[in-house]
């Protein structure tokens, strides 16, 4: 199994029942690449891409739940997220995978999974996973 697929498999195993997943990392760290692998592991057959300009993409899984993939990079004001009905998505019971969540910090639900991706000096990536109750 390729390393990114193995990482995706491990993230899913750690996530448990958590539906809100926050992806943190610098531009180019591999957030969208990991999200593509996660979506594949969950049976998404659609083309997975970063929703930078559309803010949200919706994917269907083979097992039923939807995945809403958000990219808030281009938001200037957090209240812009309210215009797309962010709270309805977050409390829908469906998966919400969020890039650049720090742009809308005040709207993030209390319970979430934090997935941090960092680059190592050898160009490899390190992934750390924490549940919100363990985040400082």
On the 0-100 scale, what is the average pLDDT? 89
* Global structural class: alpha/beta
Over the alpha carbons, how many angstroms does the gyration radius reach?
A: 14 Å
How big a fraction of the residues is strand? Answer: 25-35%
Largest beta sheet: strand ordering: 2-3-4-1-5-6
- The portion of residues assigned to helices is 10-25%
- Treating each run of at least 4 consecutive H or I residues as one helix, how many helices? 4
Account of the protein in words:
Keywords: ATP-binding, Cytoplasm, Magnesium, Metal-binding, Nucleotide-binding, Transferase, tRNA processing. GO terms for molecular function: ATP binding; metal ion binding; transferase activity. Belongs to the TsaE family. This protein is an alpha/beta fold and 136 residues long. The chain has a single domain, classed as 3-Layer(aba) Sandwich (Rossmann fold). It has helices spanning 3-15, 31-41, 80-83, 86-90; strands at 20-24, 56-60, 66-71, 95-99, 113-119, 125-131. A hairpin with a 5-residue loop joins strand 5 (113-119) and strand 6 (125-131). The longest helix is centred in the N-terminal third of the chain and has 13 residues, at 3-15. It starts with a helix and ends in a 5-residue tail after the last strand.
List keywords for this structure.
136 residues, alpha/beta, Rossmann fold, six-stranded mixed sheet, 6 strands, 24% helix, 26% strand, globular
């Amino acid at each position: 199994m390729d390393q990114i697929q193995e990482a995706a498999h491990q993230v899913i195993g750690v996530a448990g029942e958590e539906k809100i997943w926050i992806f943190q990392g610098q531009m180019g760290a591999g957030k969208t690449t990991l999200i593509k692998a996660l979506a594949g592991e969950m049976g998404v057959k659609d083309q997975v891409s970063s929703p930078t300009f559309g803010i949200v993409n919706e994917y269907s899984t083979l097992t039923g739940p939807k995945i809403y993939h958000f990219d808030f990079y281009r938001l200037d004001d957090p209240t812009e997220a309210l215009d797309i009905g962010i709270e309805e998505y977050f409390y829908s019971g469906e998966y919400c995978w969020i890039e650049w969540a720090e742009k809308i910090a005040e709207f993030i639900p209390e319970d979430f999974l934090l997935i941090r991706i960092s680059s190592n000096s050898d160009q490899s990536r390190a992934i750390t996973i924490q549940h919100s109750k363990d985040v400082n």
